[in-house]
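Technical note accompanying the year-one report. For the benefit of new consortium partners, we illustrate the data format agreed upon in the data management plan: each record pairs a sequence with a structure-token string. No post-processing was applied to the example shown here.
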Amino acid sequence: MKPLYLLAGAAALLTPLALATATWATSEATPENASPIYGVTIPDGYRKWELIAPALEAEPLDELRAVVGNQIAVDAYRAGTLPFPDGTVLVKLAWKQKQSPEFASATVPGAATTVQVMVKDSKKYAATGGWGFGRFIDGKPVDKAQHETCWACHEALVKDHDYVFTRYAP
């Protein structure tokens, strides 16, 4: 009978550990700073990634933008690979345009507006063309309603380019 008591005792000790692990896994899967709907976060080190392309958004947003990508994204753009492979991550940084104080005809970045993230995972995001989306202001995800607009625009306007607006600037 002793082995049975030992087994029951071990199970009693492991149950809190298993619950703690399950709670940790759940909180890791959906961090506080993750976008609603998709669970996308701002990737570490993205400011050191290679430039994919600059962009200019006219009125009403009046923004300067830069899209950077991880190495998988850069390699896919250079090879002309479509659809993009799983693991591709694109990050769009945006700033208000501001007239340069030194050179009147030039614009420079003003206040930061958003950081937007696209993550390719064809299984996890199968319902949205394989892409998960995140939009952040001051490092915090915006509300669910703003995230719902991401997929709608990408699906309607750039389906033939694997749902990605940005073109590579060689």
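Partners are asked to follow this layout when depositing records. Helices lie at 2-29, 71-79, 144-157.
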